[in-house]
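Practice problem 4.
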């Protein structure tokens, strides 16, 4: 199955980007038939938690994904992640790994900006105390805007002349300039619709160009702000400040180190942990609940027992989870991703051999507003499609929009219509 879209992780040194990436790609309980997480040094596979279609039909026991896993109707769907390294102030001027940073960035459909909300690392990632992390959020955006604006203004005179000569639309002219950032005509059209500009492109002032570049940045690089290290005592005041400055719907509070620690102990058999939740049980907890065997868990030493209790108080009970699963979920939300389940038979929901009892083997993520035809292109490539069926073998028109619970279970029948 195709793995796009691509989510880029950005963050200054020591913000916890590597820990966040590791916690997102550590699929110890989700691997199923997906035997690896690393694609190359910069790309990896994370796992997005969704509600699986199997639960609608009471088929949880028979749901066997080819990739990821499904437990009681909660499915882990592989999604590709990109480690965008080299974020430092002045990246757009080539400082640090600036040119590589920006070149990698353009491939991403959305960004997760990992911010050290404890304020214990400065702009370059060096240890300090009392640093204002809201500055990091502002200068990431300013770097992207300055990069795009600089490239556009360097050629603005010739852009205008060609625009007039060929009688192009504003969308066509801007797409020619923005295609290098992975843009599409639809992205450019949404950018201009957002601004509702009246004046023609050749009359745009510098202020109007600034507005266009800012709107394009928001449209092309929607960003989740992952406020990391929430368990630090200095985090609260910084969270409160950032919450007043940023859209609260773009913010996720998280502790990547806590998530890694919990998954490690769970894998080693010391605790029972439901990922993405506040629920952690030790051997002692289960014995106290009436299980004389303590769930078969190993006994914790004093150091780890105290750390678990502190983690419960400082993170899990206070915030409801470590926030790591919610980071990817928020990225999926801002992209409007919809899970679609391609099957061979829309009555039995099987995908393999006719005698197979396994259902919903595959799942793809498509962007909001995708049509049935878009899904067909993504799943089947250039193969000729005779017709498409939905649940119950009913025919589905190619122009139908897919959404959760509607046109999201599809069978593509090969051949000439």
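Answer key:
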């Amino acid at each position: 199955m195709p793995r796009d879209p691509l989510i880029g992780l950005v963050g200054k040194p020591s913000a916890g980007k590597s820990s966040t990436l590791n916690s997102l790609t550590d699929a110890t309980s989700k691997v199923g038939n997906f035997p690896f997480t690393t694609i190359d040094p910069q790309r990896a596979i994370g796992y997005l938690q969704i509600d699986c279609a199997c639960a609608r039909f009471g088929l949880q026991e028979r749901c066997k994904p080819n990739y990821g896993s499904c437990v009681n109707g909660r499915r882990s769907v592989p999604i590709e992640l990109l480690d965008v390294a080299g974020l430092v102030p002045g990246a757009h001027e080539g400082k640090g790994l600036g040119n590589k940073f920006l070149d990698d960035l353009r491939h991403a459909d959305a960004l997760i900006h990992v911010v050290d909300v404890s304020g214990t690392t400065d702009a370059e990632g060096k240890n300090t105390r009392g640093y204002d992390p809201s500055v990091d959020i502002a200068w990431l955006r300013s770097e992207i805007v300055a990069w795009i604006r600089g490239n556009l203004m360097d050629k603005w005179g010739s852009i205008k002349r060609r625009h007039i000569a060929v009688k192009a639309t504003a969308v066509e002219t801007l797409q020619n300039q923005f295609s290098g950032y992975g843009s599409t005509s639809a992205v450019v059209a949404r950018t201009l619709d957002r601004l509702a500009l009246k004046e023609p492109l050749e009359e745009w002032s510098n202020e109007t160009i600034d507005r266009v570049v800012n709107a394009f940045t928001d449209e092309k690089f929607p960003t989740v702000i992952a406020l990391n290290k929430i368990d630090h005592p200095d985090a609260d005041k910084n969270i409160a400040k950032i919450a007043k400055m940023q859209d609260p719907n773009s913010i996720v509070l998280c502790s990547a180190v806590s998530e890694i620690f919990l998954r490690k102990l769970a894998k080693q058999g010391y605790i029972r942990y439901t990922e993405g939740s506040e629920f952690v049980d030790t051997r002692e907890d289960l014995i106290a609940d009436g299980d004389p065997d303590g769930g078969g868990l190993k006994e914790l030493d004093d150091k780890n027992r105290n750390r678990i209790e502190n983690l419960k108080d400082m993170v899990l009970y206070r915030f409801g989870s470590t926030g790591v699963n919610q980071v990817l979920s928020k990225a999926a939300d801002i992209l409007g991703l919809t899970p679609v389940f391609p099957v061979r038979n829309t009555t039995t929901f099987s995908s393999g051999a006719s005698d197979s009892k396994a259902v919903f083997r595959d799942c793809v993520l498509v962007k909001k507003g995708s049509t049935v035809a878009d899904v067909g292109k993504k799943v089947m490539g250039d193969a000729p499609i005779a017709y498409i069926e939905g649940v119950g073998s009913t025919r589905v028109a190619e122009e139908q929009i897919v959404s959760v619970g509607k046109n999201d279970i599809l069978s593509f029948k090969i051949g000439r219509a």
